[in-house]
From TrEMBL:
It comes from Coccolithus braarudii. Pfam families: Methyltransf_24. SUPFAM superfamilies: S-adenosyl-L-methionine-dependent methyltransferases. InterPro entries: SAM-dependent_MTases_sf. The lineage of its organism: Eukaryota, Haptista, Haptophyta, Prymnesiophyceae, Coccolithales. Gene3D superfamilies: Vaccinia Virus protein VP39. It comes from the Eukaryota. This is Methyltransferase domain-containing protein.
Length: 365
C-alpha cells in the first residue's frame, strides 16, 4: 500500500506537468521502509535457510548517486513495481551514508557497484544475478521463483508463441491493458512508429483490435542506429515481424509500411489524415531530434481524446553496460529531451496520464 501511494503521488506530480520533478525525485529517498533489506531480514533469512525453508529473495543494490543518474532511476522505477508485486521477496539496498553500518554487515554495497545491480539468494548466500539482462527476463525470474512457472504473468507466456530475439514488450502489457481498455472492441485505428519484431503489434492485434473494422499501421525501416548519423540493416527483425504478424489472430488488420517515419509522413494527405488515429505508439529512432519530429507529426494525426505512448523516456533499459559514467549516452541521443520539449510546448493541449519509462499523454478533446 505504501509503495502504491508513492506511485500515486508521483503520478499527481506528472499530471500537474512537473516533468523534471518526476524525473529526478523518483529515487532512493522515496524507498518505503518496509521495502528495505535490513540486517534483521538477512539474519532471519539465514535462519530459515539453515532450516531448509528460505523463501525466494531478491534485492536491488542502489548506488550512492542514484538520484542523479537517469539509468539508476529507470532501474529504480522498474524494481518498485516488482517490490509491490512480490512483497516479502523483493527489496532495496540503498548504498548511502545513512545506512553505512548496516551496509557493512550486509556486505552488499561497495565501490565496485557503480550501477544498479540485482542479487538473489542462493544456497551460498546472496550472489549477483546471472540471468537474462532485460527487465522482462528479471521479472520472469522473480515470478517463477516466488509463484512457480505456472502462475506467472500470462503476458510472458503469450509472448512465447512468437519469434523474437528480445522481449522488451511483455513488461509493459499490464499497463497497456489499462491505457487502451476503452479501445477494445471498438473500430479503432492505431499507429506504431517503430515495430521491430512485432511483439507490441501482435499484442495489440490479439488483445485490442477485436472489432472487425479495427486496424493498425506499423512503420519501421528495419535499420538500426549505431550512431546518430549511422544506420545498419536489421533484416532479421523484418523476418521475425512478418512471421509474428502471420501468427497473430488477425494478420489482415496490420498494414506494414517499410521506411522511416519521415517517409511515411510524406505519403500522407496531411489534411485528410488529421485526427485519424485513436492511439499512437512512438518507439522509433531514439535520437532526440527524430523523436521530437515524430511527436509533432503524430500530434496532428491523433484524434482528440486519443493517447500517445512514448517508449524509453528513461533510455537505459539495456542495463548497466557502461564502463563508467563517461560512457553514458549524450542527451541528444535519448528520447527524454524531445519528450520534455514537446510537453513544454503542448502543455495546454494535453493531459499527462503517466510518466516513467513509458510516458503517456492524452490529447484534450
Amino acid at each position: 500500500r505504501e509503495a502504491s501511494a508513492q506511485v500515486q503521488q508521483l503520478e499527481v506530480g506528472a499530471k500537474n506537468g512537473d516533468v523534471s520533478w518526476w524525473s529526478y525525485s523518483y529515487g532512493p529517498s522515496h524507498i518505503p521502509t518496509d521495502s528495505l533489506f535490513t540486517l534483521d531480514r538477512k539474519e532471519a533469512l539465514q535462519q530459515k535457510a539453515a532450516a531448509g525453508s528460505a523463501p525466494a529473495t531478491f534485492v536491488l543494490i542502489v548506488p550512492l548517486d542514484c538520484d542523479s543518474s537517469t539509468q539508476c532511476l529507470t532501474f529504480f522505477e522498474f524494481w518498485t513495481t516488482i517490490v509491490a508485486q512480490f512483497a516479502g521477496h523483493a527489496f532495496f539496498v540503498p548504498c548511502s551514508a545513512s545506512h553505512a553500518e548496516e551496509e557493512v554487515s550486509l556486505s552488499l554495497c561497495g565501490p565496485e557497484f557503480r550501477h544498479p545491480t540485482f542479487f538473489e539468494w542462493t544456497a551460498h548466500g546472496f550472489e549477483k544475478y546471472q540471468g537474462g539482462k532485460t527487465f522482462s527476463a528479471v521479472t520472469d525470474r522473480v515470478c517463477k521463483a516466488v509463484r512457480g512457472p505456472d502462475a506467472c504473468s500470462p503476458d510472458y507466456a503469450w509472448a512465447k508463441k512468437y519469434t523474437h530475439d528480445n522481449d522488451w514488450f511483455s513488461q509493459n502489457a499490464h499497463n497497456w491493458r489499462e491505457w487502451l481498455a476503452e479501445l477494445v472492441g471498438a473500430p479503432c485505428q492505431l499507429l506504431e512508429i517503430g515495430s521491430y519484431e512485432g511483439l507490441a503489434t501482435c499484442w495489440l492485434v490479439d488483445h485490442v483490435l477485436t472489432h472487425p473494422a479495427a486496424r493498425i499501421t506499423t512503420v519501421d525501416p528495419y535499420m538500426r542506429t549505431s550512431d546518430v548519423n549511422t544506420f545498419v540493416a536489421d533484416g532479421g527483425a523484418k523476418v521475425n515481424f512478418d512471421a509474428n504478424v502471420a501468427r497473430s489472430k488477425y494478420p489482415e488488420k496490420v498494414r506494414s509500411f517499410v521506411g522511416t517515419s519521415a517517409d511515411f509522413y510524406d505519403t500522407l494527405d496531411r489534411k485528410a489524415a488529421l485526427g485519424t488515429f485513436d492511439a499512437i505508439y512512438i518507439d522509433g529512432s531514439h535520437v532526440a531530434s527524430d523523436v521530437l519530429v515524430d511527436a509533432v507529426a503524430c500530434w496532428s494525426l491523433l484524434k482528440p481524446g486519443g493517447i500517445i505512448i512514448f517508449d524509453d523516456y528513461h533510455d537505459d533499459y539495456h542495463g548497466p553496460s557502461q564502463a563508467d559514467k563517461d560512457d553514458v549516452k549524450p542527451t541528444y541521443d535519448q528520447p527524454k529531451l524531445a519528450i520534455d520539449s514537446f510537453i513544454s510546448c503542448f502543455k495546454p493541449y494535453l493531459e499527462i496520464i503517466r510518466g516513467g519509462k513509458q510516458f503517456v499523454i492524452r490529447k484534450k478533446a
